[in-house]
Amino acid sequence: MATWKTRGLRGSAFESLINTTNEYYRNKRLALVQKIPTPITPLKFDSDRKLITEAYFEKDSTVDYIGVVQEIPICFDAKECKTDTFSLQNIHEHQFNFMKEFEEQGGVAFILILFTERNDMYYMRFSELKEYVERVERDGHAKNFKYEELEDDFFIHSNGPAVVHYLEGLSRDLETRE
Q1: What confidence category does residue 40 fall into, taking pLDDT thresholds of 50, 70 and 90?
Q2: What is the SS3 assignment for the chain?
Q3: Per-residue model confidence as pLDDT tens digits over 128-137
Q4: Model's pTM, two decimal places?
């Protein structure tokens, strides 16, 4: 049984920006996307700070977000990376498999990555993630990819209230599929 001890809310600032963007998209009737909570059972609770300090995961989570954009089902996960090397170990096998199955059902799966030192955001298509995973298995490549390997067209640029404006990446992603 996997357990979790809090070290602060890693990724919570990035997720907050995504949540704000999703609310903007919803208000503009562009998309309806929701954060999926990870089911946990608390083990220890700091009543003074009203904070769960230790818990176990009830089951493997899938992805952070799921929804629909103009009749297109989407799911994605949000990740942060402090360096220019992203470890593929940050993508759990059950998450990868869920995204693969989601794509097989006609949906669009992707990952949003915040490179915190550079303050750059990236829209990673599932096909790109799959290629990085496959090269590990096929070529024995290190279980990572480098910032320099990423495609310029899929970096995310803020657009007013849509700070994490991933719809542009989604649009480019869809164009590459046609």
Answers
A1: low
A2: CCEEECCCCCCHHHHHHHHHHHHHHHHCCCEEEEECCCCEEEEEEECCCCEEEEEEECCCCCCCEEEEECCEEEEEEEEEECCCEEEHHHCCHHHHHHHHHHHHCCCEEEEEEEECCCCEEEEEEHHHHHHHHHHHHHHCCCCEEEHHHCCHHHEECCECCECCCCHHHHHHHHHHHC
A3: 999 999 999 8
A4: 0.83
